[in-house]
Amino acid sequence: MAKKRTSKARTITRVRKNVSTSSRRKGKRLTSTQKLILHLNEALSIENAAVQRLQSRIKQTKIENVKQRLQTHLEETKRQQDRLKQLISDLGNGQKNAPTKDKAQLPIPSPPKSLTDIFGRMMTSAEEELKAVKEDAIIENAEIILYDMLTHLAERMNAADAISILSESLSEERAMADWIKTNTPDMVAQVWPEIEDSIVMVEGE
Predict the structure, then answer these.
(1) Do the Cβ atoms of 135 and 56 come closer than 8 Å?
(2) How far apart are the first and last CA of the chain?
(3) What is the spatial distance between Cα 148 and Cα 143, in angstroms, rounded to a whole number?
(4) Residue 156 vs residues 28, 110, 162: alpha-carbon distances, Å
(5) To the nearest whole number, what is the mean pLDDT of the chain?
(6) What is the pLDDT of residues 63-116, one digit of tens each?
Protein backbone atom coordinates (compact mmCIF):
# COMPACT_ATOMS: atom_id res chain seq x y z
CA MET A 1 0.00 0.00 0.00
CA ALA A 2 2.87 2.36 0.92
CA LYS A 3 4.55 1.72 -2.44
CA LYS A 4 1.33 2.55 -4.32
CA ARG A 5 0.95 5.81 -2.39
CA THR A 6 4.58 6.75 -3.06
CA SER A 7 4.17 6.00 -6.76
CA LYS A 8 0.97 8.04 -6.93
CA ALA A 9 2.65 10.96 -5.15
CA ARG A 10 5.52 10.90 -7.63
CA THR A 11 3.08 10.88 -10.55
CA ILE A 12 1.22 13.91 -9.16
CA THR A 13 4.51 15.72 -8.63
CA ARG A 14 5.58 15.02 -12.24
CA VAL A 15 2.22 16.28 -13.56
CA ARG A 16 2.50 19.47 -11.52
CA LYS A 17 6.05 20.05 -12.79
CA ASN A 18 4.91 19.50 -16.38
CA VAL A 19 2.01 21.94 -15.98
CA SER A 20 4.30 24.49 -14.37
CA THR A 21 6.89 24.11 -17.15
CA SER A 22 4.18 24.32 -19.80
CA SER A 23 2.83 27.53 -18.26
CA ARG A 24 6.30 29.09 -18.27
CA ARG A 25 6.83 28.16 -21.91
CA LYS A 26 3.65 29.94 -23.04
CA GLY A 27 5.29 33.33 -22.94
CA LYS A 28 7.83 35.63 -21.39
CA ARG A 29 6.71 37.20 -18.13
CA LEU A 30 6.10 40.94 -18.55
CA THR A 31 5.28 43.81 -16.24
CA SER A 32 1.71 45.09 -16.28
CA THR A 33 2.89 48.19 -18.14
CA GLN A 34 4.64 46.12 -20.81
CA LYS A 35 1.54 44.01 -21.26
CA LEU A 36 -0.67 47.08 -21.56
CA ILE A 37 1.66 48.60 -24.15
CA LEU A 38 1.40 45.38 -26.16
CA HIS A 39 -2.40 45.56 -26.14
CA LEU A 40 -2.34 49.27 -26.96
CA ASN A 41 -0.12 48.61 -29.97
CA GLU A 42 -2.61 45.99 -31.13
CA ALA A 43 -5.35 48.65 -30.95
CA LEU A 44 -3.11 51.10 -32.80
CA SER A 45 -2.50 48.60 -35.62
CA ILE A 46 -6.29 48.32 -36.02
CA GLU A 47 -6.70 52.11 -36.13
CA ASN A 48 -3.88 52.32 -38.68
CA ALA A 49 -5.83 49.98 -40.93
CA ALA A 50 -9.10 51.76 -40.17
CA VAL A 51 -7.72 55.09 -41.40
CA GLN A 52 -6.81 53.54 -44.73
CA ARG A 53 -10.24 51.92 -45.09
CA LEU A 54 -12.12 55.09 -44.16
CA GLN A 55 -10.20 57.08 -46.76
CA SER A 56 -11.16 54.49 -49.37
CA ARG A 57 -14.81 54.44 -48.24
CA ILE A 58 -15.10 58.23 -48.44
CA LYS A 59 -14.02 58.10 -52.09
CA GLN A 60 -16.27 55.12 -52.85
CA THR A 61 -19.63 56.04 -51.31
CA LYS A 62 -22.21 57.97 -53.30
CA ILE A 63 -24.50 58.63 -50.34
CA GLU A 64 -23.74 62.17 -49.20
CA ASN A 65 -24.65 61.86 -45.52
CA VAL A 66 -22.59 58.65 -45.31
CA LYS A 67 -19.62 60.47 -46.88
CA GLN A 68 -19.93 63.27 -44.35
CA ARG A 69 -20.20 60.92 -41.35
CA LEU A 70 -17.25 58.85 -42.56
CA GLN A 71 -15.19 62.03 -42.93
CA THR A 72 -16.02 62.98 -39.35
CA HIS A 73 -15.10 59.51 -38.13
CA LEU A 74 -11.85 59.60 -40.11
CA GLU A 75 -10.82 62.68 -38.12
CA GLU A 76 -11.86 60.91 -34.91
CA THR A 77 -9.83 57.85 -35.87
CA LYS A 78 -6.73 59.95 -36.54
CA ARG A 79 -7.12 61.46 -33.07
CA GLN A 80 -7.49 57.95 -31.65
CA GLN A 81 -4.20 57.06 -33.34
CA ASP A 82 -2.51 60.10 -31.81
CA ARG A 83 -3.89 59.33 -28.34
CA LEU A 84 -2.69 55.73 -28.52
CA LYS A 85 0.77 56.78 -29.74
CA GLN A 86 1.11 59.29 -26.93
CA LEU A 87 -0.12 56.81 -24.35
CA ILE A 88 2.33 54.15 -25.53
CA SER A 89 5.20 56.66 -25.42
CA ASP A 90 4.22 57.91 -21.96
CA LEU A 91 3.89 54.40 -20.53
CA GLY A 92 7.22 53.44 -22.11
CA ASN A 93 8.89 56.18 -20.10
CA GLY A 94 11.70 56.61 -22.61
CA GLN A 95 12.25 52.89 -23.06
CA LYS A 96 12.19 51.08 -26.40
CA ASN A 97 8.41 50.82 -26.84
CA ALA A 98 7.75 52.54 -30.14
CA PRO A 99 4.15 52.88 -31.35
CA THR A 100 3.62 50.44 -34.20
CA LYS A 101 3.22 51.59 -37.79
CA ASP A 102 1.87 48.21 -38.89
CA LYS A 103 -1.72 47.67 -40.00
CA ALA A 104 -3.89 44.87 -38.66
CA GLN A 105 -6.25 42.85 -40.79
CA LEU A 106 -9.73 44.26 -40.20
CA PRO A 107 -12.50 41.79 -39.29
CA ILE A 108 -14.31 41.89 -42.63
CA PRO A 109 -16.22 38.67 -43.38
CA SER A 110 -15.54 36.91 -46.65
CA PRO A 111 -18.39 34.91 -48.21
CA PRO A 112 -17.67 31.52 -49.80
CA LYS A 113 -16.34 31.53 -53.35
CA SER A 114 -19.62 30.13 -54.69
CA LEU A 115 -21.46 33.25 -53.47
CA THR A 116 -18.62 35.64 -54.30
CA ASP A 117 -18.78 34.60 -57.96
CA ILE A 118 -22.54 35.18 -58.09
CA PHE A 119 -22.32 38.51 -56.29
CA GLY A 120 -19.60 39.62 -58.66
CA ARG A 121 -21.88 39.05 -61.62
CA MET A 122 -25.22 40.13 -60.18
CA MET A 123 -24.62 42.76 -57.49
CA THR A 124 -25.51 46.35 -58.35
CA SER A 125 -23.45 49.33 -57.20
CA ALA A 126 -26.25 50.06 -54.72
CA GLU A 127 -25.87 46.61 -53.19
CA GLU A 128 -22.10 47.10 -53.08
CA GLU A 129 -22.79 50.22 -51.04
CA LEU A 130 -24.95 48.32 -48.56
CA LYS A 131 -22.32 45.59 -48.33
CA ALA A 132 -19.70 48.21 -47.45
CA VAL A 133 -22.00 49.68 -44.79
CA LYS A 134 -22.43 46.21 -43.24
CA GLU A 135 -18.65 45.89 -43.13
CA ASP A 136 -18.41 49.35 -41.52
CA ALA A 137 -20.80 48.21 -38.80
CA ILE A 138 -18.87 45.00 -38.14
CA ILE A 139 -15.60 46.91 -37.79
CA GLU A 140 -17.11 49.52 -35.48
CA ASN A 141 -18.64 46.91 -33.19
CA ALA A 142 -15.36 45.01 -33.09
CA GLU A 143 -13.62 48.23 -32.02
CA ILE A 144 -16.24 48.76 -29.30
CA ILE A 145 -15.33 45.37 -27.82
CA LEU A 146 -11.63 46.19 -28.25
CA TYR A 147 -11.77 49.48 -26.35
CA ASP A 148 -14.16 48.16 -23.71
CA MET A 149 -11.80 45.27 -23.00
CA LEU A 150 -8.77 47.57 -22.97
CA THR A 151 -10.51 49.85 -20.46
CA HIS A 152 -11.14 46.92 -18.11
CA LEU A 153 -7.52 45.77 -18.48
CA ALA A 154 -6.28 49.27 -17.70
CA GLU A 155 -8.43 49.32 -14.57
CA ARG A 156 -7.00 45.98 -13.42
CA MET A 157 -3.48 47.23 -14.10
CA ASN A 158 -4.09 50.50 -12.21
CA ALA A 159 -3.28 52.53 -15.33
CA ALA A 160 -5.45 55.52 -14.40
CA ASP A 161 -4.12 57.77 -17.19
CA ALA A 162 -5.09 55.21 -19.82
CA ILE A 163 -8.70 54.74 -18.68
CA SER A 164 -10.00 58.19 -19.64
CA ILE A 165 -8.20 58.08 -23.00
CA LEU A 166 -9.57 54.65 -23.88
CA SER A 167 -13.05 55.62 -22.67
CA GLU A 168 -13.03 58.58 -25.06
CA SER A 169 -12.24 56.32 -28.01
CA LEU A 170 -14.87 53.83 -26.84
CA SER A 171 -17.48 56.59 -26.80
CA GLU A 172 -16.57 57.63 -30.37
CA GLU A 173 -16.83 54.05 -31.66
CA ARG A 174 -20.21 53.58 -29.99
CA ALA A 175 -21.47 56.81 -31.52
CA MET A 176 -20.38 55.68 -35.00
CA ALA A 177 -21.98 52.24 -34.61
CA ASP A 178 -25.20 53.85 -33.35
CA TRP A 179 -25.21 56.24 -36.31
CA ILE A 180 -24.97 53.36 -38.78
CA LYS A 181 -27.81 51.49 -37.05
CA THR A 182 -30.05 54.57 -36.85
CA ASN A 183 -29.46 55.59 -40.46
CA THR A 184 -29.71 52.14 -42.06
CA PRO A 185 -33.39 52.56 -43.09
CA ASP A 186 -32.58 55.85 -44.83
CA MET A 187 -29.54 54.35 -46.58
CA VAL A 188 -31.59 51.43 -47.90
CA ALA A 189 -34.31 53.85 -49.06
CA GLN A 190 -31.77 55.95 -50.96
CA VAL A 191 -30.31 53.03 -52.93
CA TRP A 192 -33.51 51.02 -53.29
CA PRO A 193 -34.56 52.43 -56.73
CA GLU A 194 -31.37 51.07 -58.32
CA ILE A 195 -31.83 47.68 -56.65
CA GLU A 196 -35.50 47.60 -57.68
CA ASP A 197 -34.59 48.30 -61.32
CA SER A 198 -32.35 45.22 -61.30
CA ILE A 199 -35.10 42.89 -60.11
CA VAL A 200 -36.85 40.73 -62.67
CA MET A 201 -40.54 40.68 -61.88
CA VAL A 202 -42.20 37.26 -62.04
CA GLU A 203 -45.90 37.06 -62.81
CA GLY A 204 -47.90 36.54 -59.64
CA GLU A 205 -45.41 38.25 -57.31
Answers:
(1) no
(2) 83
(3) 8
(4) 20, 35, 11
(5) 87
(6) 999 999 999 999 999 999 999 999 999 998 766 668 999 999 999 988 888 887
Considering only CA atoms, which of 126, 138, 123 is closest in space to residue 189?
126
CA distances for 158 relative to 69, 90, 139, 171, angstroms = 35, 15, 28, 21
Residue spans of the domains in the chain: they are 31-188
Nearest residue to 46 (alpha-carbon basis) of 178, 128, 145, 133? 145
In CATH terms, the fold of domain 31-188 is Ferritin (1.20.1260)
**Rounded Cα distance, 52 and 103, in Å:** 9
pLDDT of residue 22: 47
Task: Quote the CA–CA distance of 51 and 82 in Å, as a whole number.
Answer: 12
- Rounded to whole angstroms, the Cα distance separating 61 from 130 reads 10
Of the listed ranges 15-19, 35-39, 173-177, the one predicted with least confidence: 15-19
